[in-house]
Design goal:
alpha+beta; six-stranded antiparallel sheet; 147 residues
Length: 147
């Protein structure tokens, strides 16, 4: 699928928006890949991101999946618009105790108002990549947002 951004400065807009998102900063998430219709977010294991058994908390997994899908959609939106998630479903497939968690957001169907994206989350270690979760997201282009 050929995905074309509706903004000439899409990359700058997405990076600026991500840098302004306090929650992703709080989690320690980093944007490690950015292309039209695609964003990868990564974060490192820390004790405060785990649940009682030492795995990444499902809330952390869901949060980076949501943001990766949302920012993948934002890469295609016009100037003066922002992105909001209107609905998502996530399947948690395996617990993640690897040192790194990466969420790979990809647009499946772009639209003017609603865009459909998926995010696959993987736990990464030196010798393994474990598929942790898959989510399907509906994202809304919200007019009137400043860049």
């Amino acid at each position: 699928m050929d995905l074309k951004p509706r903004s000439a400065n899409w990359e700058q807009r997405v990076r600026k928006s991500f840098e302004a998102q306090a929650f992703m900063d709080h989690l320690g998430a980093r944007m490690v890949h950015l292309a039209p219709g695609a964003v990868d977010l990564e974060l490192s294991m820390r004790p405060e991101l785990t649940q009682q058994h030492g795995f990444f908390h499902a809330g952390v997994t869901s949060s980076i999946a949501d943001s990766a899908a949302g920012y993948a959609a934002l890469t295609l939106f016009a100037d003066g618009t922002g992105v909001l998630t209107t609905e998502y479903k996530i399947n948690l497939l395996n617990p993640a105790a690897q040192p790194t968690l990466v969420a790979r957001g990809r647009v499946l169907k772009p639209g003017r108002t609603l865009t459909i994206a998926r995010a696959d989350v993987y736990g990464l270690s030196d010798d393994a990549q474990v598929h942790v979760a898959t989510g399907l997201f509906t994202l809304m282009s919200l007019a009137g947002m400043k860049d």
